[in-house]
Amino acid sequence: MTNTTPGMVCAHHHLYSSLARGMPAPRGNTDSFISILENIWWRLDAALDLDMIYWSAALGAAEALASGTTCIIDHHESPNAIEGSLATISKACRDVGVRVNTSYGVTDRWDNDGNLHSSVNRSVKMTSAARRGLDEGLAFIKSGGRGMIGVHAAFTCGDETLSEAAALASSLGVGVHIHVAEGIDDLDAGSRLESLAQDDWLLVHAVHLDRDLKGSIVHNPRSNMNNSVGYAKPTERPNPILLGTDGIGANMMEESRLAYVRLREYDVTQNPTVVNTWLDNNYQFFPEAKNDKVVWSYDSMESPWHTAFTTDMQVLSVDVDNERVYEDGELKRMDIQEVRTKAREQAQRLFERLEA
Question: CB of 182 within 8 A of CB of 33?
Fold first, then answer.
């Protein structure tokens, strides 16, 4: 027997991380959150170019469809390939058949001389890289792209950049998509964002957030565990809670199962309907996903009491806007083997840059 559900939404992704699997081992220590950023992710995003960005997004979108996810909220950074990056991501997702809301995560950690800083004095003036990131977001949204104004995190931005990002988002009628207090290095994010945050903001992680802020909080349990930053205690927040992956794929059923067992470890009185509410909250950014159709091999998909404890649920087909875009392991708009081959080639190019 089979069961049909709406398409699912991933509320926070980094599609460029699709190429990270198998990357060379970090040269430095990765024994803290900041060292993980310095020695893995900030090296990786600095090595990206537009070809890598396209095929990483195409692979990430293909894998999203294979897990029943039809919509992705993406957060992107590529400091040496800023201009055109969001349009490239959008095109890749469109070519595969996935809807995307994407934003460029502006940061002042790259100064005007090209030097990298782990944290930034709040009084620093906006850097040229941050300005270009804001301009990329503006150009993409003005051209009809679906996006938000992205910010990396408060601890890598000066106050001027945070204020400019908030003002630009408000002028465009969109929210800000920002990592908030993910690690202890961003402990003062709450105080710095308190006067800026709005209800349409996406506050990602909020593990160490010390106060209430306006906006929706995106919980990313697998990533939080992987980076050892702590448990975000989402049930203790007054905000709407959404569920994301922080770049570790877009399989929302798998993420929801992990979110549930992590929640139960924290509070054994909780039940699967709580996490199901988080998944439902994701639709506020993509309500049209409710009209998509995902056919599963499992016949009790409507019950979170079933899905929280069932690991072998396969997606048989996906329809987006009444178009069949995935069936029996194959994409309908692109050749999945070509996507995998091109992504592998781009990953090799990326790895060679990282080793240079």
Answer: yes
pLDDT at 118: 85
The band of 1, judged by pLDDT with boundaries at 50, 70 and 90, is low
Chain Cα centroid distance, residue 203: 11
Give the DSSP letter of residue 147: B
Cα gap 101→12, rounded to integer Å = 10
Query: Among 66, 68, 67, 65, which Cα is nearest to 93's?
Result: 65
Q: Which fold has domain 3-355?
A: TIM Barrel (3.20.20)
Positive or negative: CA dihedral 270, 275, 276, 282: positive
The side-by-side arrangement of strands in the sheet containing 330-331 is: 3-5, 293-296, 315-320, 323-327, 330-331
**Across-strand partners of 13?**
74
- Please give the model's pTM, rounded to 2 decimal places: 0.96
Domain locations in the chain as residue ranges: 3-355
Q: Which residues contact 310 (CB under 8 A, 6 or more apart)?
A: 298, 300
> For 166, how many CA atoms within 13 A lie in the half-sphere containing its CB?
21
Percent of the chain, pLDDT > 70? Answer: 100
Residue-wise DSSP of 246-302: TTS---HHHHHHHHHHHHHHH-TT--HHHHHHHHHHGGGT-GGGGG-EEEES-S-TT
